[in-house]
C-alpha cells in the first residue's frame, strides 16, 4: 500500500461497549497490524445529552483486556490530538463555514415546531417528509431567504443549523471493499444537518473532518453506517479531499439468525453481550461481562474474528499473531453473522486447556473461600487432572470438590449402580491391601490394587465402581488412583470405611 495505513475505532461513550463494537475494533486492529499500520482510538462524544460518565474508561479497559490496545488516542501518543471530539469542537465550525462559502451547505432556521408541522402535513397526505431538493426552497433557510434576511437572522442570534446541500438528479458511484460497487440516486437523499444549534457538529461532519486531519486511510465500521456512505463521499468531494477506503462490516445477528444481536437476547438466553461487566449508575442494574463470566480474552477474540470473516481454511484456533497474518478484508462476508453462544464456550474450553495450572489455581482459590487454607500447589495438581472437562475456572469445584472435602453424602443413583451384594466385604478386604502400601504413589497404588483384583479373579468393575463411589460420593471424576494419591492413604481409607459403615 502506498500510504501508511491508519485506521480508527471511534465509539461513543454512551454506555457499555457492545460485543459488536469489540468486533469492529478487532477488525481495525488486525488490518492495521497486518499492514504495519496504526490503530487509533477516538472518542466521539459530540452528543453530550447521551454522554455517560465512566463509559470512556470502560471502552479503554475493554480493549486492553481483549489484548487489542490502541497505538494512538486518548492519553497515548497524541500525535493528532485531542482525541475526544468534545475537545475539538473549536475546529468544526470553520469547516462548516467553508462548506457554506463553497455553496455546498446552507443555513436552516426552521424551528422544531415548524418541521413537526411539515411532517404531520405530509403524513396526513400519506407521504414522508424529507428535507431536500423537493421542498428546501419552500422552507426557512438561506436558499429561500434573501441575503439581507439571512444576515439579519444571524445578527439577531437566531438559532440555526447548517445543512448539506445534496445534489439533484445525480448518480453516485461508490466503492466499498466488502460490498463492492454501490450506485445511489441523489434524489432520495436528504439534506443532513452538519452543525447543530447548540454549537456542536453532528457525527457526519465531525467524523469526516477528524478522519481527514488524523490521516485515516481506511474506515472499517459497522453496517449500520452504510446509509451514511453517500453523504460522507459527497463531503470529501465538497472539501476537495481524497476519501479513505471504506469497508462496512456485516451485522452480528441473534442466535436465531434473525435480527441484530441485542442486550435483551443475552439476558433472555443467559450470555453476556459486553466484554466487561457494567453497572448502570442510574438504575443500579449490572450487566454481565465476558471477563467476569470466566471467559479468556483469547477465546473471545478468536470467536469474534469468525463473526463475518473466515480464513478460507479449516483452521479455527488462531492466536492473535496468526489472526493478524491471516486477516484480509476480502474474506469478510456481506451477510450477517449469527452469534452462537455455544461456539464461544467451545473456544473457551480449548483455551482452558492451554492455561498455566498455577495461574488457574490462584484464580480458583480466589473464587472459593473453602480453599483459603489449601496449598495452591496442591490445587494446581488437582486442576491438572480435571481441567480437560472444564470450560470455566468456576467449573473446577463441581468437577473436583471431593479433592478438598470428604463427600457428605452418596449419590443415590450411583449407589444403586455400584454397591452390590458382596461390595462391603470386598471394600473391607481392599482397605487391608491399601494399608500395606508403603510407597503411596500412583504407579504403586495401581499395580497393587490391580494385582489384587486379578488374583481374586473377579471383574474390575466389582471393585473399581464401589471404590470410586467411596472416594468421590458418585461415579464421576478422574482416574481413581490419581484421586487416592492426591487425597492420601489415610483419607482414602477413611472414606472407604465411612462408605462401608453407611451402606
TrEMBL record:
Higher taxonomy: Bacteria, Pseudomonadati, Bacteroidota, Flavobacteriia, Flavobacteriales
Kindly list the places in or outside the cell where this protein is found, as annotated in its UniProt entry: Cytoplasm
Q: Which organism does this record belong to?
A: Corallibacter vietnamensis
SUPFAM superfamilies found in the cross-reference section? An anticodon-binding domain of class I aminoacyl-tRNA synthetases, Nucleotidylyl transferase
| Gene name for this UniProt entry | gltX
Where in the numbering of this chain does the Aminoacyl-tRNA synthetase class I anticodon-binding domain appear?
368-500
Q: What does this protein do?
A: Catalyzes the attachment of glutamate to tRNA(Glu) in a two-step reaction: glutamate is first activated by ATP to form Glu-AMP and then transferred to the acceptor end of tRNA(Glu).
Motif 'HIGH' region: where in chain = 11-21
Q: What is its EC number?
A: 6.1.1.17
Q: Which residues form a coiled coil?
A: none
Q: Output one GO MF annotation.
A: ligase activity
Which keywords does this chain's UniProt record carry? Aminoacyl-tRNA synthetase, ATP-binding, Cytoplasm, Ligase, Nucleotide-binding, Protein biosynthesis
Gene3D superfamilies from the UniProt entry? 1.10.10.350, HUPs
**The Glutamyl/glutaminyl-tRNA synthetase class Ib catalytic domain, residue ranges:** 5-346
By what name is this protein known? Glutamate--tRNA ligase
Task: Tell me the residue numbers annotated for binding ATP.
Answer: 263
User: By its UniProt entry, which InterPro entries does this protein fall under?
Assistant: aa-tRNA-synth_I_cd-bd (IPR045462), aa-tRNA-synth_I_codon-bd_sub2 (IPR020751), aa-tRNA-synth_I_CS (IPR001412), aa_tRNA-synth_I_cd-bd_sf (IPR008925), Glu-tRNA-ligase_bac/mito (IPR004527), Glu/Gln-tRNA-synth (IPR000924), Glu/Gln-tRNA-synth_Ib_cat-dom (IPR020058), GluQ/Sye (IPR049940)
Superkingdom assignment: Bacteria
Motif 'KMSKS' region: which ranges?
Answer: 260-264
Amino acid at each position: 500500500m502506498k500510504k501508511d495505513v491508519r485506521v480508527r475505532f471511534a465509539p461513543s461513550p454512551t454506555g457499555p461497549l457492545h460485543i459488536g463494537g469489540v468486533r469492529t475494533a478487532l477488525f481495525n486492529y488486525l488490518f492495521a497490524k497486518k499492514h504495519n499500520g496504526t490503530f487509533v482510538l477516538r472518542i466521539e462524544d459530540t452528543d453530550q445529552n447521551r454522554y455517560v460518565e465512566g463509559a470512556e474508561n470502560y471502552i479503554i479497559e475493554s480493549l486492553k483486556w481483549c489484548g487489542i490496545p490502541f497505538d494512538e488516542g486518548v492519553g497515548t501518543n497524541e500525535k493528532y490530538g485531542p482525541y475526544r471530539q468534545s475537545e475539538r469542537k473549536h475546529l468544526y465550525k470553520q469547516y462548516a463555514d467553508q462548506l457554506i462559502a463553497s455553496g455546498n451547505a446552507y443555513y436552516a432556521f426552521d424551528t422544531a415546531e415548524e418541521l413537526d408541522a411539515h411532517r404531520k402535513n405530509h403524513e396526513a397526505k400519506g407521504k414522508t417528509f424529507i428535507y431536500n431538493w423537493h421542498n428546501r426552497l419552500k422552507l426557512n433557510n438561506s436558499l429561500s431567504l434573501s441575503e439581507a434576511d439571512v444576515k439579519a437572522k444571524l445578527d439577531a442570534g437566531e438559532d440555526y443549523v447548517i445543512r448539506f446541500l445534496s445534489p439533484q438528479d445525480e448518480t453516485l458511484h461508490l466503492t466499498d471493499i466488502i460490498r463492492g460497487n454501490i450506485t445511489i440516486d441523489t434524489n432520495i437523499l436528504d439534506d443532513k444537518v452538519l452543525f447543530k444549534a447548540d454549537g456542536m457538529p453532528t457525527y457526519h461532519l465531525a467524523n469526516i473532518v477528524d478522519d481527514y486531519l488524523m490521516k485515516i486511510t481506511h474506515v472499517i465500521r459497522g453496517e449500520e453506517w452504510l446509509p451514511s456512505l453517500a453523504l460522507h463521499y459527497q463531503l470529501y468531494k465538497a472539501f476537495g479531499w481524497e476519501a479513505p477506503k471504506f469497508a462496512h462490516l456485516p451485522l452480528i445477528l441473534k442466535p436465531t439468525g434473525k435480527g441484530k444481536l441485542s442486550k435483551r437476547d443475552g439476558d433472555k438466553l443467559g450470555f453476556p453481550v459486553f466484554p466487561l461487566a457494567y453497572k448502570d449508575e442510574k438504575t443500579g442494574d449490572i450487566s454481565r461481562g465476558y471477563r467476569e463470566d470466566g471467559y479468556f480474552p483469547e477465546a473471545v477474540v478468536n470467536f469474534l474474528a469468525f463473526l463475518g470473516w473466515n480464513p478460507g481454511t479449516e483452521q479455527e484456533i488462531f492466536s492473535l499473531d496468526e489472526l493478524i497474518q491471516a486477516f484480509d478484508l476480502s474474506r469478510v462476508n456481506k451477510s450477517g453473522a449469527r452469534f452462537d453462544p455455544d461456539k464461544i464456550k467451545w473456544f473457551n474450553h480449548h483455551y482452558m486447556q492451554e492455561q498455566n495450572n498455577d495461574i488457574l489455581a490462584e484464580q480458583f482459590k480466589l473464587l472459593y473461600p473453602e480453599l483459603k487454607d489449601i496449598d495452591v500447589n496442591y490445587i494446581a495438581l488437582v486442576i491438572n487432572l480435571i481441567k480437560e472437562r472444564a470450560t470455566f475456572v468456576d467449573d473446577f469445584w463441581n468437577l473436583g470438590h471431593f479433592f478438598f472435602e470428604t463427600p457428605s453424602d452418596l449419590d443415590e443413583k450411583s449407589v444403586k449402580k455400584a454397591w452390590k451384594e458382596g461390595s462391603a466385604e470386598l471394600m473391607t478386604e481392599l482397605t487391608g491391601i491399601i494399608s500395606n502400601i508403603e510407597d503411596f504413589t500412583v504407579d504403586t497404588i495401581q499395580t497393587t490394587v490391580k494385582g489384587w483384583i486379578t488374583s481374586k479373579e473377579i471383574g474390575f468393575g466389582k471393585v473399581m465402581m464401589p471404590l470410586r463411589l467411596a472416594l468421590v460420593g458418585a461415579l464421576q471424576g478422574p482416574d481413581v488412583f490419581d484421586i487416592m494419591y492426591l487425597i492420601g492413604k489415610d483419607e482414602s481409607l477413611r472414606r472407604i470405611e465411612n462408605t462401608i459403615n453407611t451402606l
